[in-house]
Amino acid sequence: MKTTTYQPETGAPCSCKRGVQRDNCPTCEGTGQVIDxxxxxxxxxxxxxxxxDYEIQARDFLKKWGxxxxxxxxxxxxxxxxCDDSKHIHGDEHRIKLVRHLTGKRLEFPFWNxxxxxxxxxxxxxxxxxxxxxSDLHCPETFEEFCSEYGDNTDSRKALALFRRCDSFxxxxxxxxxxxxxxxxxxxxx
Length: 190
What we know:
Elements: H1 20-23, H2 37-42, H3 51-64, E1 67-73, E2 93-100, E3 106-112, H4 115-120, H5 126-136, H6 143-150, H7 157-176, H8 180-187
Antiparallel strand pairs: 1-2, 2-3
Helix pairs in contact: 3-5
């Protein structure tokens, strides 16, 4: 089986601040960790249209940490939580279930695949889901930081409601992926 290194080890946190400075930081490119650009240039490029390498990476993560992944199409007709206009057209809604073999911990949540994938009849893969939730582990800790990071107004009830949903989901993810090494592995899925 072909093994590909996807992210070089970055190590140190970047000294930039969240928000506009981080978004434009050439050292971390918004990740918050110093990126080893020399290692990126030196590695063999991966074909972006070959999803098999990415899917293998996601499956290896699940196997390494003893996690069972399942997906079920629900099509409840509801909009995703981040959408405030029911007239938008979205992909199909699915119910994702992750179960840790050793501890029996479970995590279930709704997941919408892209409209393009829905039109092709494609179900979300473990890579699709893990790549999306890897960034959700690190929701800003305060409402003010959240607004600064995503450009929202701190005087907005809508922004506060969104922050609370994101914070709640981030806490659930951190409880499920409670091992720091596991969280680091999850962040490298991209």
